[in-house]
Design brief:
The chain is built from 27 helices and 19 strands. The protein is an alpha/beta fold. The protein folds into three domains: 212 residues, no CATH class; 158 residues, Alpha-Beta Plaits (2-Layer Sandwich), CATH 3.30.70.270; 254 residues, TIM Barrel (Alpha-Beta Barrel), CATH 3.20.20. The strands form four sheets. The protein has an eight-stranded mixed beta barrel, surrounded by four helices. A hairpin with a 2-residue loop joins strand 4 and strand 5. Helix 5 packs antiparallel against helix 6 and helix 14 crosses helix 16. The longest helix is centred in the N-terminal third of the chain and has 56 residues. The chain is elongated, with a radius of gyration of 41 Å. 38% of the residues are buried. The C terminus is likely disordered.
């Protein structure tokens, strides 16, 4: 008996929609908005038809007097549903609406079944048959209209078919008894089909809800990952990637509005001595404190990012009348001592400032010039602010001066090739070197590679430089053991020039060096401009036995596709990911690239390793080749040759006596 009572309570609770998923309730209301108006239309049409056939045999108060109020109630409910069709309901409102629908369906069912059975007492077999048919088709139609609310469908079925069955069983007429039983059984079958459909509908809504929840979770995760990928883990300031993204946005906005803004580079003056004296832990705490102090600055429009190390970037939407004051405010704020535990540390800061568009109209030009202004601040007066001016441009970075000097330069005398080791983990043995061009002009002094290479590309001199640099690099690397490899960068002009490629192969052949020792490095951007010509030249190099590396991997939009489309042997992961290796996003990227390279039988070189902790982390990822200042800065070949001759090492690292087995198998670096 107790079980029966509990079951009855559960049924009553279910019938009154006490427990309902909010998303499911909203979906049910949406479907019922279109189906219940049809239900009321069905009721009215069928009722009017029965009343019409009984007009001459039943009392007027039944066919008209009672029917009219019933129809008015039905029309009222119809209008209520039509008007609320576009209402935006909350989950609670939807559940309440479903509950009211169950109650109203029950009430209207009682009214219609009472009225229709009262008509069965009048007329002959035809009129009585019409009543039986009216009840049968109407209840079936109503059940189908209520298929998305099974509670109401069951209540309508029970309220209609049970009195229907009892009424005709009491008539002791076999035909009507059979009809009533048949309709009752048909309704049970229809309810079974209805429940199957409802459960499928419920599962669909649940799946959509779960999918929507996962999509929202993914969107939140992506947004958080995006935030983390552009946030410095130590200072919680925007990082280098965010800085250059915002710089590009400032350039676009300023170009369209003819406005001026400032780009600054700030460097902490005494950070390195503090780091060396107290250790990296105190240094990190100091950087965290610097970041917190910079965030406290309340200068409208000022944006500060950590670029790396003790260097910070500044963006300010103002001209020479306001931006210098903002930059000095930042530097003055950093002059105040920092309390790190029991230590009171004073550092200070220097700043270089450049203005758009006077100093440049590209992110590279603006940053390069503000960095050069910073260099002048630190060289002349630490703690000061230097604004990049026409004097700086004329003195050191004049494009025309560089172009003129480059045209008349004696490459053999003014240029030299520096070599940076490529190191195999975990033993930290040198397996090869990347060749890097350096130029010291007698007129202009030391010119950064990115500056003179851009000038050479623009003036059509890059092929001449490439041939000369490669010749020098091959002649020097040929003095090292045969298993030591050489990495050499090619520009977009080089890899789209069959003549340049042919000359490179001639140099290899002339110097009798194994082509497998040479890996040519290229970026995806160098391929995009003239893809077909680049692919042809790359295949020529690959077919000759040389190896190809995709440099700066991870910084473009389509790097992954180039691993399939180009004859690549090696991937070099961009240094920006190593700089933020403790960031889960950057860590995940490197891990994914290392695993991808292993699965594709590609060599993976991670660039920009500057800390022992980074090397240890990369070792744990099974990364086999690395490169960076931790092991050695780029050095002239004479230093490398002397070091190998004296100790058999480079920067304290031994040369590998043979190529590692897994690298031999892949025939690469």
């Amino acid at each position: 008996m107790r079980i029966f009572i509990d079951k009855a309570k559960d049924f009553a609770r279910w019938t009154l929609v006490r427990d309902c998923d909010p998303e499911l309730a909203l979906a049910q209301c949406k479907e019922l908005n279109f189906q219940i108006p049809l239900l009321y239309v069905l009721l009215m049409l069928n009722a009017i038809a029965v009343s019409f056939t009984h007009r001459d045999v039943a009392p007027t108060f039944l066919t008209i007097g009672i029917l009219v109020p019933i129809l008015l109630l039905t029309i009222f409910r119809l209008l209520v549903w039509v008007r609320s069709r576009h209402d935006q309901l909350t989950p609670d409102q939807a559940i309440n609406k479903l509950r009211r629908t169950v109650i109203m369906a029950s009430v209207i069912s009682v009214i219609y079944i009472t009225w229709s059975l009262s008509l069965d007492s009048y007329g002959g077999p035809t009129e009585r048959g019409h009543v039986a048919l009216f009840i049968a088709i109407t209840v079936i139609g109503c059940i189908f209209c209520l298929m998305h609310l099974p509670q109401a469908a069951i209540m309508v079925m029970l309220i209609v078919t049970v009195p229907y069955l009892v009424h005709y069983l009491g008539q002791n007429e076999d035909v009507y008894t059979a009809i009533a039983l048949n309709i009752f059984l048909v309704c049970l079958v229809i309810l079974k089909v209805l429940f199957n459909g409802y459960f499928a509908f419920s599962d669909l809504i649940k799946s959509r809800s779960e999918l929507s929840a996962k999509q929202r979770e993914t969107e939140l995760l992506n947004a958080e990952n995006e935030r983390l990928s552009q946030t410095d883990y130590l200072t919680d300031l925007p990082n280098r990637r965010h800085f250059f993204k915002r710089l590009d946005q400032h350039i676009k906005e300023a170009a369209s509005s003819d406005s001026v803004f400032a780009v600054g580079v700030i460097d902490l003056d005494q950070f390195k001595p503090v780091n060396d004296t107290y250790g990296h832990q105190i240094g990190d705490q100091l950087l965290t404190a610097v970041g917190a102090r910079l965030e406290e600055l309340s200068l409208p429009g000022l944006e500060i990012s950590r670029l790396g190390g003790d260097e910070f970037g500044l963006l300010f939407p103002g001209g020479p009348d306001t931006a210098p004051l903002a930059a000095r405010t930042v530097c003055d704020g950093l002059q105040q001592p920092f309390q790190i535990g029991d230590l009171s540390i004073s550092i200070g800061a220097s700043c270089g400032l450049a203005f758009y568009p006077e100093a440049g109209e590209t992110a590279h030009a603006l940053f390069d010039r503000s960095d050069y202004a910073l260099y002048n601040s630190k060289a002349s007066s630490r703690g000061s602010l230097t604004i990049y001016s026409a004097d700086h441009e004329a003195k050191m970075r004049s494009t025309k001066a560089i172009e003129s000097a480059l045209q008349s330069a004696n490459i053999r005398e003014e240029f030299e090739v520096h070599f940076q080791p490529i190191v195999a983990l975990p033993d930290q043995k040198v397996v090869g070197f990347e060749a890097l061009a350096r130029w010291t002009s007698p007129k202009l002094g030391s010119i950064p590679p990115d500056v003179f290479i851009q000038v050479a590309e623009r003036t059509g001199q890059i092929q001449r430089l490439t041939i000369q640099f490669f010749t020098m690099a091959i002649e020097q690397i040929n003095n090292l053991p045969d298993h030591i490899k050489l990495g050499f960068n090619l520009s977009a002009h080089d890899i789209t020039s069959p003549e340049t490629v042919a000359r490179l192969l001639d140099i290899i052949k002339t110097n009798k060096i194994n082509p497998k020792r040479v890996t040519f490095e290229l970026t995806e951007t160098s391929v995009i401009g003239n893809y077909d010509a680049a692919v042809s030249c790359l295949h020529a190099l690959r077919n000759a036995g040389c190896r190809l590396a995709l440099d700066d991997f991870g910084t473009g939009y389509s790097s992954l596709s180039y691993l399939h489309r180009l004859p690549i042997d090696c991937v070099k992961v961009d240094r920006s990911f190593v700089a933020n290796l403790s960031d889960p996003v950057a860590n995940g990227v490197i891990t994914s690239v290392v695993n991808l390279c292993q699965s594709m039988q590609l060599v993976c070189v991670v660039e920009g390793v500057e800390q022992e902790s980074q090397a240890e982390a990369l070792k744990d990822m099974n990364c086999q080749l690395v490169q960076g200042f931790l092991f050695s800065r780029p050095r002239p070949f004479s230093e490398i040759e002397t070091s190998i001759g004296n100790s058999g090492t480079v920067a304290g690292l031994p040369l590998t006596s043979e190529i590692p087995e897994d690298l031999l198998r892949r025939s690469a670096m």
